[in-house]
Amino acid sequence: MKSARQVAILDIIEKQNVETQEELAEALRSRGLKVTQATVSRDIKELRLLKVLTSTGAYKYATADKAENGLSDRFVRMLAESLLSVAASNNLIVVKTLNGSAGMAAEALDSLHWPEVLGTLAGDNTILLVIRSDGDVPQVLQRLNEMIK
């Protein structure tokens, strides 16, 4: 019963914006599941659900990976606004950013989890990307240049 209820919770929060435990309990009841607010609260803790901000300014329950995706989208927008130029040498890429934004931009690049990027190192307005191989550099350069436009 518990696992079926938790699968239903994940399905509900995937398909609709649920702001409160009571809304979630009501959605479960509408599916024929008998639940209390305390049961829903325990399930939320066990599933490690988070409340995340939606584009409308309201909050909703989401899984950690969905919350991270939303954060990644925001980081990508911030990254694109701070990039100035990119240049490469062998398997290294140097990214120039607006003053003071390299740390945030490096965090944004890290959040993209590009398999070609071994790591980033940020200063104040410069990021060093270490690329897995020289052959991967053109693809990463292209992605970065597309963000600048």
Tell me briefly what this model is.
It is built from six helices and six strands; from the N terminus they run αααββαββαββα.
Tell me about this structure.
The chain contains six helices and six strands; from the N terminus they run αααββαββαββα. The model has no long low-confidence stretch (mean pLDDT 89). It is of the alpha+beta class and 149 residues long. A four-stranded antiparallel beta sheet has the order 3-4-6-5. Helix 4 (64-82) crosses helix 5.
Largest sheet: 4 strands, antiparallel
Structural class: alpha+beta
Tell me how many strands there are: 6
Based on CA inertia axes, which overall geometry fits? Answer: elongated
Essential attributes:
149 residues; alpha+beta; four-stranded antiparallel sheet; two-stranded antiparallel sheet; 6 helices; 6 strands; elongated
